[in-house]
Write a structure and sequence with these properties.
With about 210 residues, the chain is an alpha+beta fold. About 55% of the residues lie in helices and about 10% in strands. α1 runs antiparallel to α7 and α4 packs parallel to α7. The longest helix is centred in the middle third of the chain and has 25 residues.
């Protein structure tokens, strides 16, 4: 059975868990604390970030690789992007994984980075306004069937909202707000956000997820 090392609130781990759920892949979940990483996980992936998926023949330690692996196993529960939709999916995910995440970190943790939080908040907002226009032109993004794009970017938008929910709700990215509300109220989100005890080799307390 695959083993997934995960941290509940990490957006990268969150989207990996969603992909495994959508693909109906059973696995053992090992909840870790990033300040207390188990040696077993570090032996598989020395970079020490989650998620890490241990398979029989390989280790996947990038969330997008896990998503793509899960999609290839069972794409039936995912919205399947076609043609230009696939190109747009890759472009938007790259934008959020790079630019949006960069500014999000410096907005949320401005004291750590010694930055102006409002500057980086506004940079994130510009990206959300761009996303707003993309959504208006691409109805498939709001499909009731989750897409790789949807599960990949919504955890980051959720983090942005958490940083200042009043500000977020006051902005003009109404489609993003609607999508986030749908995301957080979905059965998929609630299932993958269940709390689990920190895993340890001694306790052998991994959780079977199906």
């Amino acid at each position: 059975m695959p083993i997934l090392y995960s941290f509940r609130r990490c957006p990268y781990a969150m989207r990996a868990r969603m992909a495994l759920k959508l693909a109906k892949i059973s696995y053992e979940l090992r909840e870790v604390l990033l300040k207390d990483k188990p040696e077993e996980m570090l032996a598989l992936s020395p970079k020490g970030t989650v998620p890490v998926l241990q398979l029989n023949d390989k280790v996947l330690d990038e969330s997008l690789d896990i998503i793509n692996w899960a999609f290839a196993k069972n794409p039936s529960n995912f919205y399947t992007a076609k043609g230009d939709e696939s190109k747009l999916t890759n472009e938007v995910i790259k934008l959020f994984d790079n630019d949006f995440k960069y500014h999000l970190d410096r907005y949320k943790y401005y004291q750590r980075y010694d930055t102006d939080p409002h500057l980086h908040r506004d940079k994130c907002n510009y990206i959300l306004l761009y996303l707003e226009e993309v959504i208006k032109k691409n109805d498939w993004i709001t499909s009731s069937q989750p897409s790789i794009l949807f599960i990949s970017i919504m955890p980051f938008i959720r983090q942005y909202r958490i940083a200042d929910s009043v500000y977020f709700s006051s902005m003009e990215h109404k489609h993003a707000i609607i999508l986030l509300n749908e995301f957080e109220s979905s059965a998929l989100f609630k299932e993958v956000m269940q709390k689990h005890e920190q895993w340890s080799k001694e306790k052998n307390n991994g959780t079977f997820v199906s």
